[in-house]
Specification:
The structure holds two protein chains of two kinds. By secondary structure, chain A is mostly beta strands. Chain A is built from no helices and eleven strands. The model of chain A has no long low-confidence stretch (mean pLDDT 95). Chain B has no helices and nine strands. In chain B, the strands form two sheets. In chain B, strands 1, 3, 4, 7, 8 and 9 form a six-stranded mixed beta sheet that branches. Chain B has a three-stranded antiparallel beta sheet with strand order 2-6-5, with no helix packed on it. The radius of gyration of chain B is 13 Å and the shape is globular. Classes of the chains: A mainly beta, B mainly beta.
Chain lengths: 123, 110
């Protein structure tokens, strides 16, 4: 079964750091780009960051540039999101998502999603 | 405010048809593929349409997508109460080098 499972969400104070993880199974992880998407309470979905199959191409939303870093370990079938200098507006449910296209450039089509993990930034 | 504009809400009766619009620009929809997601409360988003008008395996043909110029449309026929959800259009932004989501449209099946 194709599956993504996020972990690492927590309550954290503003300015602190947090690292999210996403464990993948059931597909050839190193063939696909991967992404993080979030949803703040009462708001819509927002793409956060994406990474190509070989980590050669990385993109980030302007709202997290310079603060968040996406990475992957293909040997461990895992995706990560290092979040530094967290702000209250980073409070959201964070989803890990698999790109649909094999070894290609992303079109925003994510065909597998994890259940998500909640990050709350508050003092 | 999103670079992709969707109506905040649409509604229709069970069995009827509804369309959801998504307006962008030449940097987004005009030169890139569009996809659509359904997001039910408490659930992970589901890919409904990719590459403007293609349906993933398992998505019924009640759902359709189209694109013209800098706009895209999601159509849903034979509405069911289970279709009540938020719907999002998504594409690539060539200038921002980023994936962009529309603001989302809440579908109510009356």
């Amino acid at each position: 079964e194709v599956q993504l499972v996020e972990s690492g969400g927590d309550l954290v104070q503003p300015g602190r750091s947090l690292r999210l993880s996403c464990a993948a199974s059931g597909f050839t992880f190193n063939d696909y780009a991967m992404h993080w998407v979030r949803q703040a309470p009462g708001k819509g979905l927002e793409w956060v960051s994406g990474i190509s199959w070989n980590s050669g191409i990385i993109g980030n939303a302007d709202s997290v540039k310079g603060r968040f870093t996406i990475s992957r370990d293909n040997a461990k079938n895992s995706l990560y999101l290092q979040m530094n200098s967290l702000r209250a507006e980073d409070t959201a449910f964070y989803y890990c998502a698999k790109d649909r296209d094999l070894l290609g450039a992303t079109t925003g089509a994510f065909d597998v999603w994890g259940p998500g993990t909640m990050v709350t930034v508050s003092s | 405010q999103s670079v992709l504009t969707q109506p905040p809400s649409v509604s229709a009766a069970p069995g009827q048809k509804v369309t959801i619009s998504c307006s962008g620009s030449s940097s987004t929809i005009g030169n890139n593929f569009v996809c659509w997601y359904q997001h039910l409360p408490g659930r992970a988003p589901k890919l409904l349409i990719y590459d403007n008008d293609k349906r993933p395996s398992g998505i019924p043909d009640r759902f359709s997508g189209s694109k013209s110029g800098t706009s895209a449309t999601l159509g849903i026929t034979g509405l069911q109460t289970g279709d009540e959800a938020d719907y999002y259009c998504v594409t690539w932004h060539s200038s921002l080098f980023a994936v962009v989501f529309g603001g989302g449209t809440k579908l109510t099946v009356l």
